[in-house]
TrEMBL record:
Keywords: Pyridoxal phosphate. It comes from Streptomyces eurocidicus. It comes from the Bacteria. GO terms for biological process: lysine biosynthetic process via diaminopimelate; polyamine biosynthetic process. Residues 28-272 form the Orn/DAP/Arg decarboxylase 2 N-terminal domain. This is Orn/DAP/Arg decarboxylase 2 N-terminal domain-containing protein. Signal peptide: none annotated. GO terms for molecular function: diaminopimelate decarboxylase activity.
Length: 392
């Protein structure tokens, strides 16, 4: 890693530009995914949620290890197919466009989640027009949370899924729709849950809900998609999701899972740990008695610390060469705020973490940046289309 950073710095210096890069260890990502996959029962399907990191090299590293990709837009579909032309693809999301649905059906998307009556009708209409059938999972927004984490998708008032009270109506419409095959339920509920025991309790609640809907509405439940949401340890306090315990719990539930394909689609937990955001220090200074460092980069490239609301860990890679004809400035043994170059006081990556020494020209490296780093920080999140620019 350090070697890659130093060669990156050398290349940047040749252009007289500061160094700023995302570095992904794609071999480590593939190894990690292989380990998680191997722990699961064979009846489980492991998909990768592309939105966590859709860099082509990352998708290519994961393609041979996972069973397919979870996507939410035509853009993500194209990236998934570029990594593996035959990859199994599951299309989710509360706002599917007509164009994206048609692209998905023509490209052989295996499963669509259905988030509303409109979503269902649109899928049925496009499938009819294109002479295909759509295999669907109904996404349920349950009355009460099934599990809790940092972002709650269902079990409360959100834009996600079908309200449990409206489920009889949507289920009946789905079962009657001429170009739709209902395969089961989609229950992605949460993000960044650190607790394997509560995630197993969530699986039990999903199984109970599936049994209830099967009995009450004659809903097929061959496929149960429990989404992602497995937590990672950003603060280093050791509270990481115990995947082996989770996988053992699934093995223990093999009787309850008979006849059900359990789809698991993590994003964050597959890629977070093997990505690094590196940024060169452009200036260090004191204002109002506090120390600041200004970096090449900022929240437009790495918004994750803002979203998590905590000081992100970082390390300093000291760079001894200093080719510029001015004195080099430094901070010593002091808490420092690491800021970006966006010209707004909001552009703060960490507020007060103590550094031993930090000089202009050194590199700050933020670990745990492989998921929702570059992706959530810019206008290409979920690879959705850009707006038009109109004038009057
Ligand atoms: C975002 C998302 C995922 C992945 O979530 P992680 O928290 O990154 O594991 C899986 N499924 C759906 C439907 C999603 O929206």
């Amino acid at each position: 890693m350090a070697e890659r950073i130093h060669s990156g710095i050398a290349a940047a210096r040749e252009r007289a530009e500061p160094f700023c890069a995302y570095v992904h260890d794609t071999a480590a990502i593939a190894d990690h995914a292989r380990r998680l996959r191997a722990a699961l029962p064979d009846a489980c399907t492991l998909l990768y949620a592309v939105k966590a990191n859709s860099r082509p090299e990352v998708l290519s590293a994961l393609a041979p290890v996972v069973d397919g990709f979870e996507i939410s837009s035509g853009g993500e579909l194209r990236k998934a197919r570029a990594a593996d032309g035959d990859a199994r693809v599951v299309f989710n999301g509360p706002g599917k466009s007509w164009a994206a649905v048609e692209e998905g059906l023509r490209a052989g998307v295996d499963l669509f989640n259905v988030e509303s009556l409109t979503d269902l009708a649109r899928l049925d209409a496009v499938a009819g027009r294109t002479g295909t059938r759509a295999r669907v999972l109904l996404r349920v927004n349950t009355r009460r949370p099934l599990v809790t984490g940092t972002h709650q998708m269902v079990g409360e008032a959100t834009q996600f899924g079908i309200d449990e009270d409206q489920l009889p109506q949507v289920a009946a419409a789905a079962l009657a729709a001429p170009h739709i095959d209902v395969e089961g339920l989609h229950l992605h509920s949460v993000s960044n849950n650190p607790d394997a025991a509560s995630h197993l309790a969530f699986v039990d609640r999903c199984l109970a809900l599936a049994a209830e809907l099967r009995a009450r509405h004659g809903l097929p439940t061959r496929v149960l998609d429990i989404g992602g949401g497995f937590g990672v340890d950003y603060s280093g306090d050791g509270r990481h999701f115990d995947w082996d315990a989770f996988a053992r719990g699934l093995h223990d539930r093999s009787a309850a899972l008979t006849g059900i394909e359990l789809v698991i689609e993590p994003g964050r937990s597959l890629v977070a740990e093997h990505g690094f955001y590196c940024a060169e220090v452009l200036d260090v200074k004191h204002n109002h008695g506090r120390a600041f460092a200004v970096l090449r980069g900022g929240i437009h490239q790495f918004r994750l610390p803002k979203v998590l609301g905590a000081d992100h860990p970082f390390t300093v890679v000291g760079v001894d060469s200093w080719p510029w004809p001015v004195d080099r400035t430094e901070l010593r043994d002091t808490p420092v705020a690491l800021c970006g170059e966006l010209g707004t006081p909001a552009d703060v990556l960490t507020r007060a973490t103590r550094v031993g020494r930090l000089r202009t020209g050194d590199i700050v490296v933020f670990p745990m940046a492989g998921a929702y780093g570059w992706e959530i920080s810019h206008r290409d999140f979920l690879s959705h289309p850009h707006p038009d620019f109109l004038t009057t």
